[in-house]
Design brief:
- The longest helix has 19 residues, at 265-283.
- The chain has helices at 5-8, 25-38, 46-59, 70-80, 95-102, 148-158, 222-231, 252-262, 265-283, 312-325, 354-362, 374-385, and strands at residues 15-16, 63-67, 86-89, 107-110, 133-137, 161-165, 173-177, 183-187, 194-198, 211-215, 235-237, 240-241, 289-291, 305-309, 328-329, 363-366.
- The protein is globular, with a radius of gyration of 21 Å.
- The chain has 2 domains: 25-262, Type I PLP-dependent aspartate aminotransferase-like (Major domain) (Aspartate Aminotransferase, domain 2); 263-385, Aspartate Aminotransferase, domain 1 (Alpha-Beta Complex).
- The protein contains 12 helices and 16 strands.
- It is of the alpha/beta class and 386 residues long.
- The strands form 5 sheets. A 7-stranded mixed sheet has the order 2-10-9-6-5-3-4, with helices on both faces. A 3-stranded antiparallel sheet has the order 13-14-16.
- It starts with a helix and ends with a helix.
- It binds pyridoxal-5'-phosphate (PLP).
- Pyridoxal-5'-phosphate is lined by residues 69-71, 93-94, 96-97, 139, 165, 167-168, 198, 200, 211.
Length: 386
């Protein structure tokens, strides 16, 4: 069993932008039976601990804490650093990134993105830093790894924390030179001060709902205990509660799904890679369609397949509607930009981030999941070329 052909048996129209990858049902069933026997359903049970260890190894990170979902993980790691004031982030992301900042009582400041890969543009950072800036929260959007060297440099100069939204970057590595000049591969979850991963059903690797915070810097090992307490109501002992935590615990059913999926995720990523190649091959040279160019010194998990369409919003929406009419449902990830949301419009203006605005108005994220058939990819491409 490869976790792909079993899924494909049920391919159907409509073709959605993504589809949850499932392990063989018998494997999940076997673990669920064990949960029924033990009656340990949540609160850091056996599967929680097994998944935590497995993911730590898979992501190659120094530290990792599991959470009920990625959003709560992000809220709680921001809380863990005790930030005050402003956090610089990108408007070209999912709502969660900015909400996590605001729900911590911090003010988001929006930085524009890079033309080549849609990630935060470090050259525009400096101008946004004030005496109130506490941190930078960049996003490895679509799994495209940020310009972390330049971001780090600015952060160090100004004494800022860097927390990555790595929701899209499961399993990715960067290649870099050690001080001795040797090349090494490093899990992206080691970058900055901490990273958040999402294991939502629609992500490359999932636990139904779930997430994690990871870190690589030994100075941040305090996160280990602190995040554990924050996700468990701030409880520090049978009769003591020392901080204002919440409930961020991952339950055993979700952890069990993660344990099953971990065995198959490499195959799923490889299948995504082959389909990505097929899209790129089919659409190479197609007029008015541009692919992004992620950095070449990072591996890719092929989480998404975004294309930028020439001709502005009207043209993009027209292509979107005509694909929908054929039973193909791409998504406008990410439209609108966060700085155009009704809840944030009062204190920001999307015209301040023109590249992000243009991206959001011209992007279409095409269907991509491991068991998508090549025939469907070909059909989508020929529809696009019309
Ligand atoms: C999915 C996602 C999140 C939130 O993760 P959940 O696990 O759904 O809570 C945060 N940021 C980005 C960029 C995401 O795509």
């Amino acid at each position: 069993m490869d976790g792909i052909s079993e899924n494909r048996k049920t391919e159907e129209t409509p073709v959605l932008v993504t589809r949850a990858s499932m392990p063989p049902v018998e494997e999940y069933e076997a673990l669920v039976r064990r949960i029924f026997e033990s009656r340990w359903l949540t609160n850091m049970g056996e599967f929680h601990e097994e998944l935590k260890a497995g993911l730590k190894e898979k992501l190659g990170v120094r530290g990792l804490e599991l959470f009920v979902n990625g959003h709560t993980a992000l809220e709680m790691v921001i809380q863990a650093f005790g930030l005050r004031g402003e956090v610089i982030t990108t408007p070209f992301t999912f709502a969660s990134t900015v909400h996590a900042i605001v729900r911590n009582g911090l003010r988001p400041v929006f930085c524009d993105i890079r033309e080549e890969d849609g990630t935060l543009d470090p050259e525009k950072l400096e101008a946004l830093i004030t005496k109130d800036t506490a941190a930078i929260l960049p996003v490895h959007v679509y799994g495209n790894i940020c310009a972390y060297e330049a971001i780090d440099r600015v952060a160090k100069e100004h004494g800022l924390k860097v927390i990555y939204d790595a929701a899209h970057a499961f399993g990715e590595t960067i290649c870099r030179k050690t001080p001795e000049g040797r090349e090494e591969k490093l899990g992206v979850g080691n970058l900055g001060d901490a990273s958040m991963f999402s294991f939502h059903a629609t992500k490359v690797f999932h636990t139904i709902e779930g997430g994690a915070v990871t870190w690589g810097n030994p100075e941040n090992d305090f996160l280990e205990g602190l995040l554990y307490r924050l996700k468990n109501f701030g409880i520090t002992g049978k009769e003591s509660v020392e901080l204002v935590g919440g409930n961020g615990k991952m339950n055993e059913f979700c952890a069990a799904m993660g344990i099953c999926n971990l065995k198959y995720v490499d195959g799923w990523i490889a299948a995504r890679g082959r389909l990505t190649e097929r899209y790129r091959g089919n659409l190479a040279g197609a007029k008015g369609i541009r692919f992004l160019s992620p950095r070449q010194d990072a591996s890719s998990n092929h989480a998404y397949l975004p294309v930028l369409l020439e001709g502005g919003k009207a043209r993009r929406d027209e292509v979107f509607d005509s694909l929908c009419a054929e039973g193909i449902f791409p998504r406008k990830y990410f439209y609108p930009c966060a700085n155009a949301y009704a809840c944030y419009r009062e204190f920001c203006d999307e015209r301040e981030t023109p590249v992000a605005k243009r991206f959001s108005e011209s992007v279409l994220t095409l269907p991509l999941y491991p068991d998508l058939s090549e025939e469907t990819v070909d059909r989508i491409c020929s529809l696009l070329q019309k």
